[in-house]
Specification:
Helices cover about 35% and strands about 25% of the residues. It is built from 10 helices and 13 strands. The strands form 4 sheets. The protein has a 5-stranded mixed sheet with strand order 1-7-6-4-5, with helices on both faces. A 4-stranded mixed sheet has the order 8-13-12-11, sandwiched between helices. Helix 3 packs across helix 4 and helix 7 runs parallel beside helix 8. It binds acetyl coenzyme *A. Acetyl coenzyme *A (ACO) binds next to helix 2, helix 6, helix 7 and strand 12.
């Protein structure tokens, strides 16, 4: 028994913030941001719009694409670092909105790898026969933990949501997932402030702190190893891959992974220019964009990967 992606969906908040808008807010330039990151614009949640507000339309679109009524959902795994509340978790809040009741619903807080962690867990429940219709979500309002006075991080992060529906299948769908974490480097990328440690009284009270160039080097190295690991575990040569659907942190990191796979950039789904880094939402957002514009087709072989704070990272090899 396998699990298979039977529907994808995504949602972006209406407000768009361009690099030129950022030029007016801080000492930066469109040229610097585009050259160093590939980002041109990003979407930012409206005041009062929460992570679950973004996740709900993404989930409904995925369910509609799958031809599944929301009440059929019996498992929700929700990747996010920016939950609406301490509890109930975002999975439960989403379950209530969808009118699905009784199945497990939880969130996973592994930063940018949140969707891949959630997908891996859901895959195992579906394969074990314990879930018949699993909803896997990645959604974030990272703008709420962005220090808008810190140009080294504020130009990167953004808001959005993506979702997939997984169902049991005798045909291979999710071929493998590999997850990793290494807390040794936790000080290179973290969010200041927390429920248990307390929130700093000075501004910014809760914000992402990152040593960008160190994170960059580790991301390139570990993502390279992660894609090799996924191919080796499945006995698949890189020439058999149809698409790379990467985490959208930085176009230069994406290009490095594509080079490692000998994949031309026209076989990589790139949304970083329009979406920025939406953390756990980035991979399912890119996946949905590729499915809906017709580039990603049933039967194709996709490699999904992500790297984020923790550090956490991982991959999924998927037959659509
Ligand atoms: N505008 C203009 N100049 C800037 C900006 C900005 N927005 N930000 C930094 N600079 C300056 C720096 O001050 C520095 O100036 P100096 O040389 O005078 O000291 C210079 O630009 C170079 O800074 P670097 O940090 O070395 O620039 P780099 O080329 O490494 O690019 C970046 C920075 C884009 C952050 C890159 O390192 C990166 O993408 N890192 C990885 C991010 C990532 O993948 N994070 C993981 C996922 S995120 C998550 O988990 C939540």
């Amino acid at each position: 028994m396998y699990s298979r992606i039977v529907g994808t969906g995504s949602y972006l908040p209406e407000k768009v913030l361009t690099n030129f808008d950022l030029e007016k807010m801080m000492d930066t330039s469109d040229e610097w941001i585009r050259e160093r990151t590939g980002i041109e614009r990003r979407h930012i949640a409206a005041e009062g719009q929460t992570t679950v507000d973004l996740a709900e339309p993404a989930a409904r679109r995925a369910l509609e694409a799958a031809g599944v009524h929301p009440s059929e959902v019996d498992f929700i795994a929700f990747g996010t670092t920016t939950p609406d509340l301490v509890f109930p978790n975002c999975g439960v809040l989403l379950q209530q909105r969808l009118g699905a009741r009784g199945g497990p619903a939880f969130s996973v807080e592994t930063a940018c790898s949140g969707f891949l962690y959630a997908l891996s867990i859901a895959d195992k429940f579906v394969r074990a026969g314990e879930a018949k219709c699993a909803l896997v979500v990645g959604a974030e309002t990272l703008s709420r933990i962005t220090d808008w006075k810190d140009r080294s991080t504020a130009v990167l992060f953004a808001d959005g949501a993506g979702a997939v529906v997984l169902k049991p299948s005798e045909q291979p769908g999710i071929l493998s997932t590999h997850l990793h974490a290494d807390g040794t480097y936790k000080d290179l990328l973290y969010c200041r402030g927390g429920v248990s440690t307390g929130f700093p009284v000075e501004e910014p009270r809760m914000a992402i702190a990152m040593v960008g160039n160190e994170v960059f080097k580790l991301a390139v190295s570990w993502l390279g190893k992660a894609v090799d690991e996924a191919l080796a575990a499945n006995g698949i040569d890189k020439s058999e891959l149809d698409w790379l659907v990467p985490h959208q942190a930085n176009i230069r990191i994406i290009q490095a992974t594509a080079r490692r796979l000998d994949l031309p950039m026209d076989r990589v789904i790139c949304t970083v220019a329009e979406h920025g880094n939406t953390s756990a939402a980035s991979v399912p957002l890119a996946l949905d964009v590729g499915v809906r514009d017709g580039r990603l087709k049933p039967g194709q072989l996709l490699l999904l990967e992500a790297f984020g704070g923790g550090f956490t990272w991982g991959s999924a090899l998927v037959r659509l």
